[in-house]
Amino acid sequence: MPGTCEIFLQQHIVQPLGLREDQLISFRSEEINETECERVTNLIARKGGLDLCVLGLGKNGHLGLNEPGESLQPACHISQLDARTQQHEMLKTAGRPVTRGITLGLKDILNAREVLLLVTGGRKAGCDRSFSHG
User: 3-state DSSP helix/strand/coil percent for the chain, to nearest 5?
Assistant: First the structure.
């Protein structure tokens, strides 16, 4: 589906690097439901964890789509998006309001062997500083 983080990662990382499907665990972004969460959780377990987790830091400080103030979830889950996240330029191309998303939980992220946190845009400078310096 257009307007998803998954599409962004495919276009800007997966395709340019020539990564194969068997090297990835990615979301089926058109399927935001508990079955998709279970599929991703099972894939992570079957592969023995994540070697690399690539995710973004949002303008409001969300990590992946783990929104600030939300109760922290350990595993893949469906997140209700903050009003500010819903206004993100990427989501405007979806052709409909996007109010929730699927994301890894913090345990999934922190258990990855390596984490690549993408922070782009000048308006995220404060979030970046707060995140990296407490």
Answer: 40, 15, 45
Q: What is the pLDDT of residue 77?
A: 95
Residue 26 neighbours by CB distance under 10 Å: 13
Domain total of the chain: 1
Q: Which domain holds residue 79?
A: 5-133
> Would you tell me how many other CB atoms lie within 10 Å of the CB of residue 84?
14
pTM of the model: 0.80
Is 52 a residue whose pLDDT tops 90?
A: yes
* Burial tier of 27 (Cβ tally within 10 Å: 0-12, 13-18, 19+): buried
CATH number for the domain including 46? 3.40.50.1360
Alpha carbons 46 and 67: distance in angstroms, whole number: 27
Buried b (16+ CB within 10 A) or exposed e, 110-129: eebeeeeeeeeeeebeebee
